[in-house]
Amino acid sequence: MKPPRLQKGDKIAIVSPASAVAAYVPRRLARGIATLEKMGFEVVLMPNATAVHSHTAGTIGERLQDLHMAFADPSIKAIISTIGGFNSHQLLDELDYELIRNNPKIFVGYSDITALFTGIYQQTGLTTFVGPALLTQFGQFDGLDPYTEESFKRTFMQTEPIGRIEASEEWTDEVLRWDVADDRRREHQVNAGYTIVKTGVAEGPILTGNTGTLLLLAGTPYLPSFDGVVLMLEDDESETPETIDRYFTQLRHMGAYDKIAALVVGRFPRKVDFDPDFPLKDIILRATRGYDFPIILDADFGHTDPVTTLANGVQIRVEATDSVTLDVLEAAVE
């Protein structure tokens, strides 16, 4: 089930289903809203988007209220998260999935919001999205990176097949303290492009998100099947080579590698600090030993910028031969 496409003039709701960062960075929040308004949208900041309850953005009830209000309001056409963080999975067993199923609309987030958009996708069949967040991308000093904006529009604002996901020309993981030092464009570096770990050609529906958060759903009714999917995973700067190794080993033990069609991994921030003598490529080769599906690293999604928008359940073709092509074969919206 695909949501209706987004058009200029539409209302976009802003929610904070996880961490309360939005309450502490009013300048960054205002910049994110202004970027969306410049793109032609009307922005609705939901009542609890800047709430604080200990380490979350409001109580479970408050965060659920915002999501339910946004899905129930027929004038709201898309829902964008302020940021990820922690604990959005607290909402999964009390979400009104029938309400969501009866009011399909664009729901986009990243990082910890993986728990929500994956659970919604599994429980309702609604196509959900990894993509830019209000604070992280829309709230940058210079607004959205052109690459991020083009992908956002191509995914949400037209109904033709999304097409090729090209590698960005440059990328950044520079951290500038929000509302203190984020008063300039971050320093970027040339993108060397995709890295091929294993060659091959595959096609299947996308299943995407943050690795650690996705694995929180193991053994729950909120994790979709891995059968035939192109698994597209990323993680953040707080991880270490040891934890990343553990995640990809867990996927092996869960039987994921018996089922998936391909594995595409988003670029990691340099702070993860992989051992140059045993880099990420070697970690993944060890975890996937005995399997021959195509594997690609350094795609433009996750916790570096710019980011492409990815749609759960939408068909993608992966070719990793002499070079890499990623072609999304259908539209993500109707």
UniProtKB/TrEMBL annotation:
Q: Where is the LD-carboxypeptidase C-terminal domain?
A: 203-318
What InterPro entries does the record point to? Answer: Carboxypeptidase_A_C_sf, Class_I_gatase-like, LdcA_N, Peptidase_S66_N, Peptidase_S66C, S66_fam
Keywords in alphabetical order, please.
Hydrolase
**Domain (LD-carboxypeptidase N-terminal) ranges:** 12-131
Q: Which residues form the active site?
A: 111 (nucleophile), 234 (charge relay system), 303 (charge relay system)
A Pfam family that this protein carries is: Peptidase_S66
Record has Nucleotide-binding as a keyword: no
Q: Record's family?
A: Belongs to the peptidase S66 family.
Q: What is this protein called?
A: Peptidase U61
Record the organism: Exiguobacterium indicum
